[in-house]
Amino acid sequence: MLEIKNLHASVDGKAILKGLDLSIGAGEVHALMGPNGSGKSTLAYVMTGRDGYRVTEGEIVYKGRDLLAMSPEERAGEGLFLAFQYPVEIPGVPNTTFLKESLNAVRKYRGEEVLDAMQFVKLARRRMKELGVSEDLLKRPLNVGFSGGEKKRNEVLQMAVLEPTLAVLDETDSGLDIDALKAVADGVNALRSPERSTLIITHYQRLLDYIVPDKVHVLAGGRIVRSGDKELARELEKTGYAAFTGEAA
Amino acid sequence: MPAQSFTEQFDSLRGELPGAALPWLRELRDAGIERFGSLGLPGPKEESWKYTRLRPLEQTGFAPAPAADTVSIDRLPALFPQSGMGHRVIFVNGRLRQCISFLPGELPEGAELGGLAEALGRDPEGMAERLGRIGRLDGQSLLALNTAMMRDGLLLRVKAGVTIPLPIEVVYVGAAGAEPISYHPRNLIVLEPGSRATVVEHHVGLGEGAYFANSVTEILVQEDAELHHYKVQEEGPEAVHIATLHARLERGAVYDSFTLSTGAKLARNEASVQLAGPGAECHLNGAYMLRGKQHWDTTSVIDHLTPHTTSREVFKGVVDDEARAVFQGRITVHPGAQKSNGHQLSKALLLSDRAEVDAKPELEIYADDVKCSHGAATGDLDHEALFYLRSRGIPESTARHMLIEAFLGETINGIAAEGLCPALMASVGHWLSRATNGERS
Q1: Residue A72 to residue B409, Cβ atoms within 8 A
Q2: Which of A239, B26, B235, B404 could pair with B263 in a Cys bridge, judged by C-beta atoms 3.0 to 4.6 Å apart?
């Protein structure tokens, strides 16, 4: 599914990722943990093609194709989805318009028929019900005035509607109460299938109680410094990252 | 043969202009041409013309427009989706075209709607009382030129307490052939105490010819009357559109305006609004979309003359290619105009490195108990928002269009007139669908 080899990336001329290797197989859930500033979000943005993130070395192969050669919208069309750590507020664009545009753009890319307004509303309602998202969220301008929890739920709603092949969750758990956390976890678990993979970027082990990962990686100093199974997350919860930041330096 | 100057044109036309036999009108016209002669075309030495040069007028001769029936019109663009939504008055090259104008149903009693030329013949005394009373000639050479050369225009008078429920759509068609032409529409709107009306101006160009539309609108909104005045400017690509507006608002009067501009090579809206009675309220809002080498200018002067007066002015625009937008707004709170409230805002999106916006807000306050604010912001499309949309699979050009529509929609959706918001948003969508540089990747 995803093969990251010797990835080096910099922001504003400052090297952040320094030889990152990561391989995620189809159907797997991986957790990427690590201290602040270790490059977790940078990896998410490099994967999705954000401006200002420069890859200086290495490659990312996604479904056998060169991911870095694709535009952000192509990557989305190919089934890559990033749940943003800080979802962007866009006044004047209703959430429902945005979600419909997005879904139909992705369907068009895949060569599927676009949905009309009725079909879309039906699908969106079903997903909202499954996720326990209130319907009025769709009527409001995109993320404008949403609480932290609403923003994160809205990200998961988008994910549930777009049904990505590879979902990257960038600290989707931060700032969530336990109910919202469970809702996010349910959304991710509902999508789990042998064809779909998930990369969960997080500080804490908490979310991993609800979404049990196949593998856990520790990112420090721009590289994966340790990989293991779910027990590694529990161990980190006890010991913290101090050992790794020392190791990376 | 070189084109005549405007003064020469006036000399040869004066005998055939409407109302030529009326002494008061002769005096008015003579004063106008004299003023224009001494001022000349406005130039960069004048502070309010610092950013806008009337080069096309300096370089090209514009002959007086021939009679309107020389133009054949098979299809008129309609602003409202279904016909019959309102009254419709049509001017072609500045002159009323009676045969294609229509007024569905009856106008309420006490509403007078028609053309200026006809009114000068029918009711010269009434016109003498009202014409040229609000628009002041001082310093305004294009207004003076209009006063000398005016032939026709909208005349709307609504008597006390009368409401015209349906909007009045006024279509101004500019139709020039190979030879550049000019015309000088003169509009007069008088709303007597407690009356209400909605006027929607639609300026369109037929064909690609060059023309100079130099219009002047005088507006009097008397006590507790309410005028909603909307304008869609979609002049032809070679047009020069100058619109001077003078409005006077009496006690409790409301003047609510919105202008959407997408057309003309050079357009200038110059508004002067006097808030002359307590409780008077004026909204001077608008949106613009420019590309190519278009030049757009909105210059306004709002005078708070009495206490408890309110003004709101919000303009938002999108500027692409090498186009240029100029926003100049002055709010003056005169001595004694306590508890006045003035707000002014200019926001623009630059879609190209070569596009330019000059914003000059000015506040002059001579009273101590007032609330006034102004602001101006110019920037690029929000990169984070653009990336967010693209990361969800939305192609860049679509994402840009969504953000531009959202930006302008915020102001357009505030329009009160029923059915007009969708029409204006359709206009925005149409402009975007013709986008060139908006498609840059």
Answers
A1: no
A2: B235
Structural element, H or E, at residue B29: helix B23-39
d(CA A53, CA A10): 6
A80-83 and A53-62 strand pairing: unpaired
Q: Which residues contact A122 (CB under 8 A, 6 or more apart)?
A: none
A84 touches chain B (CB under 8 A): yes
Contact B403 A97 (CB under 8 A): no
Give the C-alpha distances (Å, rounded to integers) separating B137 from B6, B26, B36, B169, B218.
17, 15, 9, 28, 12
How near does any CA of chain B get to the CA of A129, in Å?
A: 22
Query: What is the distance between the alpha carbons of residues B105 and B189, in angstroms, rounded to a whole number?
Result: 21
Compute the nearest-CA separation of A70 from chain B (Å).
11
Instruction: Using CB atoms, pick whichever of A76, A91, A109 lies closest to residue B391.
Output: A76
Mean pLDDT for the stretch of residues B288-315: 97
Nearest CA in chain A to B407: A92
pLDDT tens-digit readout, B369-404: 999 999 999 999 999 999 999 999 999 999 999 999
Q: What is the number of other CB atoms lying within 10 angstroms of the CB of residue B25?
A: 21
CB B390 within 8 A of CB A74: no
CB contact under 8 A, B388 and A84: yes
Q: What gap in Å lies between CA B214 and CA B172, rounded to an integer? A: 12
Q: Please give the average per-residue pLDDT across B36-50, as a whole number.
A: 90
**pLDDT digit string (tens) for B68-91?**
666 777 667 777 665 556 788 999
The three state secondary structure string of A200-236 is EEECCCHHHHCCCCCEEEEEECCEEEEEECHHHHHHH
| Interface pTM, i.e. ipTM | 0.96
Tell me how far apart the alpha carbons of residues B149 and B134 are, in angstroms, rounded to a whole number. Answer: 17
Closest residue of A to B406, CA-based? A92
Say how many C-beta atoms besides its own lie within 10 A of residue B229's C-beta.
23
Window B:373-432, CB contacts with A under 8 Å = 382-385, 387-396, 398, 402-403, 405-407, 409-410
Determine, for residues A102 and B390 on separate chains, whether the beta-carbon distance falls below 8 Å.
no
CB B407 within 8 Å of CB B349: yes
Residue B207, token pair as written in the block: 């064909």
Burial class for B12, CB neighbours closer than 10 Å (0-12, 13-18, 19+):
exposed
Give me the phi and psi of A2, to 5 degrees please. -135, 130
DSSP per-residue letters across B315-334: EEEEE-TT-EEEEEEEEEE-
What tokens does A116 get? 């009309």
Q: Looking at this protein, which amino acid is placed at residue A16?
A: I
Query: Comparing C-alpha atoms, which of A94, A84, A119 is closest to residue A104?
Result: A119
Contact A77 B393 (CB under 8 A): yes
Mean pLDDT of A165-182: 88
Query: Which residue from A73, A84, A97 is facing B393, i.e. has the nearest CB?
Result: A73
Which residue, A10, A32, A6, is CA-closest to A19? A6
| C-beta atoms of B393 and A51 within 8 A | no
As a whole number, the mean pLDDT across chain B is: 91
A229 CB neighbour count, 10 Å cutoff? 12
User: What single-letter DSSP state applies at residue B163?
Assistant: B
As a whole number of angstroms, the distance between CA A56 and CA B286 comes to: 47
Tell me the C-alpha distance between B407 and B347, whole Å. 9
Q: Using 50, 70 and 90 to split pLDDT, how confident is the model at A246?
A: low
User: Beta-carbon neighbour count of residue B377 at 10 Å?
Assistant: 12
Buried b (16+ CB within 10 A) or exposed e, B93-107: bbbbbeeebeeeeeb
